[in-house]
């Protein structure tokens, strides 16, 4: 399997792009994690991976999206994005996740990539704006991987994403990216309506056949103004997704990403461990894209280094949450976020202004934390990589108190649980 994977990378992608990914994502990425660990030992903090939602606008209207895509357009201007990236680079960062809205609606996006050829970008996109011309420019940059979201078969995808033809346009974007030999990923927010179609060997085999190099399965999180809880997965379905990810990693020549487990299958939240934080379209610094609360901004006068180091809001978020659960706080303990917002006077970073009410309306449910049902990695490579570079960096050992954990499944009766859930944002 590893040989087949190596062969695919060697023969199916542009060698220059592959070399850049290995250097910036592999070597420099590991170095940034190493610097993060050293900072933690000294009691300092700066997340080694930053996500930036560069624009709120989107051409789609997906079920369960938490971004105010129909509000007046707002974006992180080129200079502000450049300043943020430069300051993160000084801290050793070499990888940036770019989200929206739909990032390709930001007119300066490609210029941003061209300006920062020494770091690597992963763009979360619906693929609709990836034409051959755009893909050629991305190939020329060499430092960008599009992560294109597919949310189901044609009918399901078009329902999830708000209109006819979405699926076909997305597939056209994937094909344009692949024709131009980009390193392409496909992601899915797994929910009740797509789990049977996409969490399958058949779908992964098709991605491999197309030339897709990696896939990413998120779990649908019922948040935002229209959470669509009927789409959320039950605990059993979430364990099924985890088992599928572990098995696929060990058997198929495609990289599979998930961001919720360490090598032993222990659940974690990458925002709580401090692995990532997020900058929203208005410049607000949030724990993660779906937690739309902040006390700081990239537009503040302070250097970013000091902002992350001194933010009591983010520190409290990490410690308070880690004390109560290893899962996703917005799914399991939205009340903690309300408490945190009140304590720190955190502002609602949405245009709609209803985040606290939305949090109060969330019905708690289990997330990636499935105590007693941990599924360890089967693949030696993933096991090693996670041991070194993707784990909790001691966060839960320091803070988690099993006595304080409240199992959401204990509170929700079975029929209600089946009705709970949400779709993804794109
Ligand atoms: S809080 Fe939930 S959605 Fe945010 S990073 Fe953690 S697990 Fe993911």
TrEMBL record:
Its cofactor is [4Fe-4S] cluster. This is Radical SAM domain-containing protein. Residues 405-414 have a biased composition (Basic and acidic residues). SUPFAM superfamilies: Radical SAM enzymes (SSF102114). The keyword Oxidoreductase does not apply. GO terms for molecular function: catalytic activity; iron-sulfur cluster binding; metal ion binding. CDD domains: Radical_SAM, SPASM_rSAM. Keywords: Iron, Iron-sulfur, Metal-binding, S-adenosyl-L-methionine. InterPro entries: Aldolase_TIM, rSAM, rSAM_sf. Residues 405-426 are annotated as: Disordered. Residues 44-263 form the Radical SAM core domain.
